[in-house]
Amino acid sequence: MSEVGSRHHGYTTRDPGREVPEPTYAERARTLLARAEEGTLATPSRRHPGFPFASLMPYALDPMGRPVVLVSDLAVHTQNLNEDVRSSLLVLEPGGEDRNPLGMARVTLLGTMEPVDPEAAGEEAEAVRDLYLERHPTARYWVDYPDFGLRRMEVVEAYYVGGFGVMGWVSGDDYRAAEVDPLLDHAQGIIDHVNADHPDALILLARHQGVEEVEEARMTSVDRLGYQLRIRTGEGMQGLRIGFPEEARTPTRVRELMVAQVGAAREALAQP
How would you class 186 by CB atoms within 10 Å of its CB: exposed for 0-12, middle for 13-18, buried for 19 or more? Predict the structure, then answer.
């Protein structure tokens, strides 16, 4: 498991001396890439040398977090890659109709988009094909056409942006070694449930953390180490990170820990 809590800037706590455990940028990047299914691929333009050419690109991830794409020989991005495999892939955090796009998490991967040779790679090529079709099953209708081929990005470095003021570079080695958060498949359900059914509890938690005059609080993310709130006060919007006292690797454990935190907050705030 990669190091936890190596970067904290960009999240607001009411006690500057108290560090709240957070996943590393590498873990956040791997988790975001695992959640999403498409991104924007930028390739060096063959038609206009020196200009990047951007196109929508569905992808899948292999076990090392390398994006796999299926491209047509007729596509402009494929023609660009045939001359220069250097490229970047921008992936935005999925969902969130009420979110400011600039406040959403995103990752830009830089690397080389190498062809997956079905003859040279043997069984590996078949495995790459299978994982792509698992993520994008409709591609089975054209994946075996002779003018289509799979490519896989060898990640050189990644740049993670977690929202306003939260950003940093991640080395290729750190990206490949990072774990996807165990709550990946449950996080959105947890967020939707808490925001819909327990908004008063979130306000209580924010007040217990020292935020005064809370008008609204919404959960914007959750991971095994804690969760992020977006809080509206009379002074404007701010973020607040609240950590779990221990890792929560299942939805049941998230619920248990949050119920305990709400209970402690209610007891503390009720004291004269």
Answer: middle
